[in-house]
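Researcher: Last one for today. Full complex below.
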Amino acid sequence: MGDFTEIEKEIFYKIIFSRRDVRRNFIKKKISNEVLLRILTAAHHAPSVGYSQPWNFILIRDKKSRLDIKESFSKERLKSIELLEIDEERKRKYLDLKLEGILESNLNICVTYDHKRFGPFVIGRMTIKEAGIYSVCCAIQNLWLAARAENIGVGWVSIISNNDLKRILKLPPTIKPIAYLCLGYVKNFEIEPDLQTVNWLSRLNLDKVINYEQWNGNNRNTQWKGFNQHLNRTNTSA
Amino acid sequence: MGDFTEIEKEIFYKIIFSRRDVRRNFIKKKISNEVLLRILTAAHHAPSVGYSQPWNFILIRDKKSRLDIKESFSKERLKSIELLEIDEERKRKYLDLKLEGILESNLNICVTYDHKRFGPFVIGRMTIKEAGIYSVCCAIQNLWLAARAENIGVGWVSIISNNDLKRILKLPPTIKPIAYLCLGYVKNFEIEPDLQTVNWLSRLNLDKVINYEQWNGNNRNTQWKGFNQHLNRTNTSA
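Model: Here's the assembly. Have a good evening.
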């Protein structure tokens, strides 16, 4: 297959940078069968350890299930608030955050991991046992970016009990829920992450998460000097 | 931010579908500082639980480290072969597979997870403890796709001992290696995954990994009938 051009790269990065974790401003418009199929096909084309494709996508529109899942969220959210009780300011901020769009979004998707698929011998998973779960996460990121390209918002709700999910969605014991996602068209995509807007946390400068040759590696050696200078000239936290 | 057009979506999907897990045919061309910075910036713009950005990227070009890591691979690969000894045909196939490009690729990147970053209270991670690791995997997939857009191949080597990685890269005890990636320009990108070409495994039909409303949900109910028909009319395993 051919090379991508400068213009094609630019479009790709625009999708990467404008993807948001969306929890509000969902609108009523339905996701069509054609669009949903494209998004799921993108997820299914993620890399997977030993080509094991260990994911499932449970599509949920049923109101009753969503109400039950929302109840699980509310219960877990209260538990989290208790963990913050010594810090009054953070607690207040946390209480103001909108953290899920379970009922307002057009579609919920539970993404699960099946350890047994094509097993027990899966190339690469004999050494790194968790590698199958990593594959599922790659599929989730494909799904998320495809949704953004389709102008659809996605929010990952992690304040949910996996035991509740297993009960509500009738998952067999061997199936592990990895993500609970809310998808829908939105009024608009925000220009920065919500948690940055409300000053919960800021994006780190890229140089804080780059290491040279080893954990405490020196960026002043000849090999990496040029890269490090280029990095410092570029604003990478925007 | 504005909506993406049909042409822009098409380019995005072309990148998704032409991304490969690359272990051979690396060429000598160096990845420039500008290109490397763009790829890492894309990774750093992945979603993360509670905006915790718990990743680090260790950039490795040093020959000595790579030789040590290759040695770890060779050792672990032998262990895996032993697990296959009852199945002579699969064993022969496995022995023929090229599973890493540690020495031939231009650059190796070890992606790690830092549980302590912005902790202990990370929104969403109080309920799902592993959510921070999931975030790192999303960053890896962003990196992988960005590399493909830049016409650079990436191979994820999971036949490596994490203990060896920690020793060779001098990782502190709290830092967990998640992925060991080999990056470089390639002669060409294959049109299908290597493990499919050699008939190790095939891509599943998409309908095998889609569930309706719950694990054993019925796709014949009114809500999902149209989607299911559309799915069956479309070839999704290509």
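The first helix of chain B runs from residue 6 to 18. Chain B has a mean pLDDT of 94.
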